[in-house]
Amino acid sequence: MIAYIAKRLLAAIPVLFGLTIIVFAIMALIPGDPAQAILGNFATPENVEKLNRDLGLDKPLVQQYFIWLGNLFQGDLGRSYMQNRPVLDIVLERFNATLILAGTALVLCSVLGLIAGVISAVRQYGWVDKAITFIVLIGISIPSFWLGLLLILVFAVNLRWFPASGMYSIFGGGDLPDLLQHLFLPALTLAVVATGVIARLTRTAMLEVLRQDFIRTARAKGLSERTVIYKHAFKAALVTVIPVIGIQAGFVLGGAVYIETVFQWPGIGSMLVTAISTRDLILVQGGVLVVAAAYVLFNLAAEVVQTILDPRLR
Known about the structure:
By secondary structure, this protein is mainly alpha-helical. It has helices at 2-29, 34-39, 45-55, 61-73, 87-122, 127-141, 144-158, 176-210, 213-220, 225-263, 268-277, 281-309. It is built from twelve helices and no strands. It is globular and about 85 Å long.
């Protein structure tokens, strides 16, 4: 297993290297001059030229990339133009909040999706199966940002059960119950689409497993239906679903960008939106690279769990 993990980590290195090229190229294509955005009203041609020279933005793009890449190998993501702070410090501060949101959403969508998929498969063609399928299709079809605004309108504005924005209360709070109260609506919004995907694929995997010979053998031995479903069929179906959960982890992490904007969650997504609007490209590069690296690691973790559960892969 250690050799397998090491092999997968080595295979991820070219992917991460390719990500650095893509991220840098996309940032270079964004129109506008960072120096002019930083200087604002003081953006005279002389000041802009001097600031570009100080920031190294007057060098060719290829040279800028290799300078950035060399610093990256030393753990230096650069320094934010606007905040005048190390990018790594800013990203790690914001990434903690994003991990709380994305991790909670991933747990929600995994648990709810697996439960809904198993129940739907066991009650195939029944009214429970049809109701779950209907709810899942609606959840997949609704845009997450629109659902977030709808939940704010219903549960925050009208019912006043949950706060509409932020991570903690402005006055007081700051403890775990306060965090959970602020976390519920954005995590639920972020989890809805992934829950539908996991539920549908869990249902399909369960139906396929329930038709296998070993399930018939387990029933013929007189095992209870609960034991057959949850001890044998679900474990076999989980091998197929685990990689899907890994992929959804990446989508949940990426979806946190606009969900954080809707709910004013102080994570890396809202940081990226602000950095893009202020042309703080070095901060955008660092933030996107960290999110992309986390996505690769999530998929690696899913592959490792799948290998542990499936003896055929071992």
